[in-house]
Amino acid sequence: MMSQTADFPLLSSLVIIHYDSLCPNGFVRTQIEERAATYLARGRPIYNLSTLEQPTPQADFIQLPAQDPSPLKGYGLSRQIESLFQLLRTQKEFTSKNFELVGVTWWICVVAAQEELAKREVSACINYDCTDLIQDYIAARRLAPELQINGAPVPKPSQRALTAYRQHRETLEKVS
Questions:
Q1: Under a CB-based contact definition with an 8 Å cutoff, are residues 5 and 129 in contact?
Q2: Least enclosed by CB within 10 Å: which of 23, 65, 80, 113?
């Protein structure tokens, strides 16, 4: 299932698939940190699979070891999904509870992650306001308004996320 921050209920736990973003302005990081703060405030666990960079405050996250000691090798769709299912195998509570995924990179990764979760009958929601999909959406709208990936249109982020992104960009432009 996919959803957006604006209508996303808190689930049993949050899983950060990928914290580092190709977005040079750090917008995705900000979105993930805000979502993590909400989970921390409610005392819900946060699992971090990210290998290149770590969210703060690290002490409040359950860092899961990378499948490969080289951080760059953890930066691909197959590694992200492999890490997620390693987590599912080792953390038994995920088999019976809903959890939220943030930081899934690129639309094609979201589609593949959805398919893998469905095959394994895992109940998880991908919060695409907290992914690189905002970048995908904006680029797609500029390049080809009718762009589809794997036969599905790039989803429109919530108005809240688009407004936050625009404000973030305006702030960066004022600083530069």
A1: yes
A2: 65
Give Cβ neighbours of residue 87 (< 8 Å, ≥ 6 apart): 15, 47, 49, 64, 94
Sort 175 into a burial class: Cβ within 10 Å, 0-12 / 13-18 / 19+. exposed
Whole-angstrom CA distances from 155 to 65, 99, 120, 134, 147 are 31, 21, 24, 9, 10
**Which tokens in the block code for residue 84?**
């997620």
Residues in the chain, total: 176
Q: Token pair 């939220």 is at which residue?
A: 100
pLDDT digits (tens, 9 = 90+) for 105-128: 666 667 677 777 777 777 777 777
How many domains does the chain divide into? 1
d(CA 149, CA 103): 19
Collapse the DSSP code of 50 into the 3-class scheme (helix H, G, I; strand E, B; otherwise coil) and give the result.
coil
Segment 29-72, tens digit of pLDDT: 777 888 888 888 899 888 887 755 555 555 677 766 655 555 44
| Structural domain harbouring 163 | 2-175
Q: Domain with 43 in it: what CATH number?
A: 3.40.50
